[in-house]
Specification:
The complex is a heterodimer of chains A (about 180) and B (about 60).
Chain A: H1 4-35, H2 39-48, H3 57-77, H4 81-104, E1 109-110, E2 118-119, H5 125-145, H6 152-156, H7 169-179
Antiparallel strand pairs in A: 1-2
Chain B: H1 2-30, H2 36-62
Helix pairs in contact in B: 1-2
The chains are: A mainly alpha (about 180), B mainly alpha (about 60).
């Protein structure tokens, strides 16, 4: 049986989820929009990591910003939220692996996360990795949480009315009292 | 040596993520959030992505 405190707690978790969704969504949207008009520079940034085959870099440089924009919009709207959060988490994992692999090999590159990229005299691997880990934590939170506030998911794929378990004893009594 | 330890860490973290993924999928199935075949298919796709990423990165870092 859920208590009122549990329902309030669930509600506040939903609002925190909304904040995380909007924050991560705007981050991905701005990263994608910064890279989309400059595919040549993004391609150079991708090649700087020396992880992908040379021929794949142009396609990746175009596909990545588009994917970031789509994921950003989905997160902001709260549409397919958990799937978008899962894709976002996988993307962030790949970014973290790319940055740390460059770090381990002693490469000197800029991450190119918000445009730019390529060779850099002053790489910021630790800061980039910690930042991406923070964003990954938000994405994982959105996957685990299941429902966030003000999401289109709730509007389009609304589940049935809340079960009796949703109500506390006191609210049940109130409803019974009002019906007699 | 640095590269070897990096790959060891990468494999360990990835294995932990895959184990956590199994726990997550089983929890979703238990709570009847989505059909089991859909969840396991999704897990297989993600696991394939992770394994491919680990193999590719390890090969590049060690070569």
């Amino acid at each position: 049986m859920r208590t009122r405190a549990a329902i309030l707690n669930e509600s506040s978790l939903g609002w925190i989820g909304l904040a995380g969704r909007l924050y991560l969504g705007f981050i991905f949207l701005s990263a994608g929009l910064a890279k989309l008009p400059e595919p040549a520079i993004t391609e150079q940034a991708v090649r700087g990591y020396q992880l992908l085959p040379w021929q794949l870099a142009p396609a990746y440089a175009i596909a990545m910003p588009i994917a970031e924009i789509v994921l950003g919009v989905l997160l902001i709207l709260g549409l397919f939220t958990r799937t978008a959060a899962l894709a976002t988490a996988l993307g962030l994992c790949s970014f973290i692996v790319g940055i740390t692999a460059a770090w381990a090999r002693g490469l000197n590159i800029d991450c190119g996360c918000f445009g730019g990229g390529g060779a850099s005299a002053d790489p910021t691997y630790l800061a980039d990795t910690l930042r991406d880990l923070g964003w990954l934590a938000i994405a994982v939170y959105l996957i685990v949480l299941r429902r966030t506030k003000l999401a289109l998911d709730d509007l389009l794929f609304r589940r049935g009315a809340p079960s009796a378990d949703y109500y506390s004893e006191s609210s049940k009594k109130t409803e019974l009292g009002s019906s007699t | 040596m640095n590269e070897v330890w990096y790959v060891v860490g990468l494999v360990a973290v990835s294995a932990a993520v895959l184990v956590l993924g199994v726990w997550f999928v089983r929890r979703e199935i238990r709570d009847e959030i989505s059909p089991a075949p859909l969840l396991w298919t999704g897990y297989a796709v993600v696991a394939a992505f992770v394994v491919f990423g680990v193999l590719r990165t390890s090969w590049v870092v060690l070569s």
